């Protein structure tokens, strides 16, 4: 399964994409908040969002899947 994962533990502050959106490599897909810092999560390759696995306000650990890609 192709996924975009959290780079570190924190709260999902903002989801920037929805299912069906096409992604370009380097595009921001979400912003995590950890220790009052905003950490952007970016796509590592081109693709298309199949599913959003976490919602705004959810706590995630490093490595947790945030999005599933087609």
UniProtKB/TrEMBL annotation:
Pfam families: Biotin_lipoyl (PF00364). The keyword Nucleotide-binding does not apply. Keywords: Biotin. Residues 1-70 form the Lipoyl-binding domain. SUPFAM superfamilies: Single hybrid motif. PROSITE patterns: BIOTINYL_LIPOYL. This is Acetyl-CoA carboxylase biotin carboxyl carrier protein. It comes from Alteribacillus persepolensis.
């Amino acid at each position: 399964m192709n996924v975009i994962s959290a780079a570190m533990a924190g709260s999902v502050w903002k989801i920037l994409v929805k299912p069906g959106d096409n992604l370009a490599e380097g595009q921001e897909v979400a912003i995590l908040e950890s220790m009052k810092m905003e950490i952007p999560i970016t796509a590592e390759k081109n693709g298309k969002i199949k599913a959003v696995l976490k919602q705004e306000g959810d706590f995630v650990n490093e490595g947790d899947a945030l999005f599933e890609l087609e």
